[in-house]
Amino acid sequence: MLLLSTCLAGMSFNSSAFKPTDKTVFAQGYPEQAPVTSHKFTFEQLNREGIRLSGTLPSSDVNFTNRIDKIIKELSVKLKHTNSPALLSQLSHIKVYLNDQLMAIVPVTPLEYDKVHQTLTEQTLKLKPHLVRNYNTIRFELIGHYTNEFCEDSTHSSIWAELDKESTLKYKAQQIALKSDLSHFPEPLFDEFDYAKLSLPMVFAGTPSKTTTQAAAILSSWFGARADWRGASFPVQYDELPKDHAVIFATNDTKPHFLADYPDAEGPTVEIIANPEFRYKKLLLVLGRTEEELITAVEGIALGLPVMTGRTAVINDVFHLKPREAYDAPRWLRTDRAVRFGELLDYPTQLQTTEGSDQSVKLDVRLPPDLFTWRTDGLPIDLKYRYTPPTDKAISRLNMSINNEFIQGFTLTPEGGKSVVSELKIPLLSNDDSDKDRYFSVPGFKADIKNELAFKFLFSTEKEGFCTTSARGGELGVIDDDSIIDISDFHHYIAMPNLHAFAQGGFPFTKYADLSETSVIFPSNPSRLELETLFTVAGHIGKTTGFPIFNADLHYANENIDLTGKDVLIIGEVENFTAQMNEQSQLSVLLEQSTREITQAVYDGQPYDYALANEDAAATVSLSSYGPLAAIVGFQSPFNTERSVVSIMANNNDDLNLINNTLTDSGKLSQIRGNATIINPYKVHNSYLGERYYIGSLPPFTYIWFHLSEHPLILAILTLLTLLIISFVLWRILSALAKKRVETQE
Fold it and tell me: Which positions, given as ranges, span the membrane (predicted)?
């Protein structure tokens, strides 16, 4: 339960005073001219690897977004395109729409069919900026004709046009001054319509204490959950007024100089104010009388945001009514029951697609990293779908894939859906019992921690003769939100160390989404980059679970800590603690200033490959080198065989940027595997050497069978011994029965 009070404040300012004696100067900031920024994106940067329009798929989209605190002043598209030489320029063209409003008609380029054409036609189209919303769609629709005759096949292969991926979208955006009101929050600090990586400075009066650091880490994980796939970094600043949106942590005794005369907090307080020097930027103030109240204020943000309004919110108290349970991360598929597709939606129409669209129905499915899928049929899905029924002669299909790998296809029959006519309304699709049901399994080997399920409806046209093609339009396909996926019967068991599980799922720390069984160890006098790495890791973990790390224990490396029941995350240079770990565990990578040591398995001359048969053939190399280098290393906890340690280390303090960049780069993040990952400015290397251990539980028979499967000779011997024992027992039983029968006859 969360109790908070809110209050409104005035919106005036005083441009003559730099150090205010009250809050009014912060209400609006200084009235400098609104900044205007220019932006340019290629279609490739907008996630379109070129666009091909054809008679079967004549329409395609490019989407872009606009932040809540910006207004578009100029907008244009520079098209680089080509088309089929067969298209008639008098009849063919490309229609361009912005948010369903026709903006331009682009003629096709007349091309001679008997010549080679290697150049693209370039045309710049000016679009109307006043039509821009938060989420915007530029739609291209091809009207293609290849003959003047009445008889024409609208799906003919000669009808096509291509828009190059180097086509660009350009616009100028003017910053606007939002009212300082928590009703907007987390905008403008984080805007869901800004697809760029979130970079949010964390500002302190000086090196923060452990308690203040914990408050900042919790808030970082909350912002990381919001940023999700964008990634989030949190630069650390000391006693410096930021030039962009930022978060300021301050107690009554420790304030940055630019808040020196700011009124003292009367309790855990959250305020949103304008930057006094940069009017169009906002500062989120996390205030408290003590450092402990900063944690309460941050918890208030994470749990009480929906009821925060006005400029200020004072958090009276925060009650956590129920502790988190294992595997209950909001972004993970639930393991205690079947999950409906409707529970996985990001927006209402996500499960619907229309004829002519080149987009599939897509769902993100995130599995617990330790889900045990060995020798299972796969992940069961009870799929229900509806569609506009095709004609008897048209063959339409529904294809399903996971992570871009085809799984199964279904034929869409004419009996699949019926139009229902009512006097009151005309339903778009039938809701009767004629929905199609399919029960099948997704092969376990194709499923990863993060998965994308895709369903593609392919509606075909009916062609009875050279001049007889049925008109297309109006076909719809829907994946029913009552379709279910069920992993409740799966066990949890995983071989460790497994840095892929950490990179993609934050595991093993995220077994409990609030990190209640995790201890974070960092230096007693951390540098800015060590703190930034801590906050970036917190944001990464929040991204994987969708939940803040409320209950992670933060400890300095020089503290006397009981780590028996904890998974351990080590950040930065903690020499004494790492030395203690190294004495009790096997580290395959060690970085200490210019000295570097690595132990590797050697298999077919490739030291980064791993083979069970060759895991003992290892070499240790110790050398001195001075270039940038960082590493993420996983190993078994020396304090508890059921617990794990992940250590994030760097050759020197500046090299921690390699870690921060990797954790916010989806491409590099996907390369993290094994028990050690070595990162230089250009490549990511993995090491797989080291003794494996397992965490989790299995039924006894499955446990024995699983572990013996790696040793077929032992399994064969045990099978033979079992058969001999069974044979011996049967022989004794039969002998006893025979002896008894003989004695009876005598």
Answer: 713-734
Cα 19 to chain centroid, rounded: 42
Q: Are residues 183 and 252 in the same domain?
A: yes
Do 167 and 41 fall within a single domain? Answer: yes
Domain that holds residue 169: 36-175
Q: What is the DSSP string of 375-440?
A: T---EEEEEEEEEPPPPSS--EEEEEEETTEEEEEEEE-GGG------SS---SS--STT-EEEEE
For residue 739, tell me if it sits in a domain: yes
- CA 711 to CA 706: how far, in whole Å? 10
**At residue 606, does pLDDT exceed 50?**
no
The verdict on 583 and 610 lying in the same domain is: yes
Same domain, 387 and 502: no
Of 456, 473, 470, nearest to 356 by C-alpha is 473
pTM score of the predicted model: 0.84
Going by C-alpha positions, the residue among 108, 119, 110 that lies closest to residue 144 is 108
Q: Please give the Cα distance from 665 to 246 (Å, whole number).
A: 22
Phi, psi at 104, each rounded to 5°: -160, 160
Close Cβ partners of 373 (under 8 Å, ≥ 6 residues apart):
379, 444, 445, 447, 490
CA 142 vs. chain centroid, Å, equals 34
Looking at residue 505, the DSSP 8-state letter turns out to be H
Cis peptide bond upstream of 508, omega within 30? yes
pLDDT interval class at 551 (50, 70, 90) = very high
Our count of domains for the chain comes to 5
Model pLDDT, residue 675? 87
| Tokens of residue 380, six digits | 């069961």
- Which tokens in the block code for residue 164? 């190059």
Other CB atoms within 10 A of residue 718 CB: 13
Q: Is the pLDDT of residue 191 over 90?
A: yes
Q: 182 and 163 share a domain?
A: no
pLDDT classification of 632: cutoffs 50, 70, 90: very high
- Looking up residue 561, the CATH number of its domain turns out to be 3.30.379
Same domain for 390 and 455, yes or no, is yes
Residue 334 within a domain: no
Number of CB atoms found within 10 A of residue 456's CB: 19
Residue 477 CA to residue 459 CA, distance in Å, equals 9
- Enumerate residues 6+ apart whose C-beta is below 8 A from 503: 663, 669, 670, 672, 673
3-state secondary structure of 177: coil
Cα–Cα dist 609/689, whole Å: 9
- Backbone phi, then psi, for 221, in 5-degree steps? -65, -35
Average pLDDT of the chain to the nearest whole number? 82
Cis status of the peptide bond prior to 427, with omega within 30 of 0: no
The kind and range of the H/E element at 315 are strand 312-318
Indicate whether 439 belongs to any domain: yes
Sign of CA dihedral 616, 622, 623, 629: positive
**559 in any annotated domain:** yes
Task: Supply the pLDDT for residue 600.
Answer: 59
Q: What is the pLDDT of residue 258?
A: 92
DSSP track, 115-165: S-----EEEEEE--GGG--SEEEEEEEEE----SSS---TT-TT-EEEE-T
pLDDT at 609 over 60: no
- Same domain, yes or no: 139 and 199: no
**Which CATH number goes with the domain that contains 421?**
2.60.120.260
Residue of 532, 538, 496, 530 whose CA lies nearest to 513: 538
Structure tokens at 77: 């598209």
Please write the tens of the pLDDT for every residue from 283-305: 999 999 999 999 999 999 999 99
Give, as one character, the DSSP assignment of residue 629: -
Q: Do residue 161 and residue 187 come from a single domain?
A: no
Q: Of 158, 175, 192, which marks where a domain is finished?
A: 175
